[in-house]
Design a protein that fits this description.
Distance between the termini: 32 Å
CATH architecture: Beta Barrel
Structural class: mainly beta
Shape: elongated
Number of strands: 6
Number of domains: 1
CATH topology: Porin
Largest sheet: 6 strands, antiparallel
Strand order of the largest sheet: 1-2-3-4-5-6
Length: about 130
């Protein structure tokens, strides 16, 4: 129950955030991996975007993906470029990260890590002018 309150607080606080030098966000969702059928995960995470200039920022991101017999952790330092236009601000982002699989099952727990590259884009939409 405390975890649910934390996520609700993160989403509500981001709605009232002012434009500034730091943007914080939380995430909650689903991730599926195809491997002899779908492997379903509950995904939670958090990140903070630190603006180095008016348009350029770095955004370290942490994700936790839970499955019944294992979990994955993701650390991804992103870089982002904002196309500031007002209340709607499109951006592009990308980074190189590490995904670590933690297995629990028969025998001792094991883990393995792999590198990955991601790129994407989106838009921030401000509800109020500030």
């Amino acid at each position: 129950m405390k975890t649910a309150g934390l996520f609700v607080g993160l989403f509500v606080s981001s709605a009232f955030a002012q434009r500034g030098a730091i943007d914080m966000k939380g995430s909650l969702g689903y991730t599926g991996f195809p491997d002899e059928g779908w492997i379903h995960h509950l995904q939670t995470g958090a990140s903070a975007r630190f603006y180095l200039t008016r348009k350029f920022s770095i955004e370290p991101e942490f994700q936790y993906l839970h499955h019944s017999n294992h979990y994955d952790t993701v650390f991804l330092p992103n870089v982002s470029w904002d196309f500031r236009k007002g209340r709607v601000e499109p951006y592009v982002t990308g980074g190189v990260g590490v995904l670590t699989n933690h297995f629990r099952g028969f025998g001792p727990p094991t883990s393995s890590s792999s590198w990955f590259v991601q790129a994407g884009g989106g838009a921030k939409i401000y509800i109020r002018g500030r």
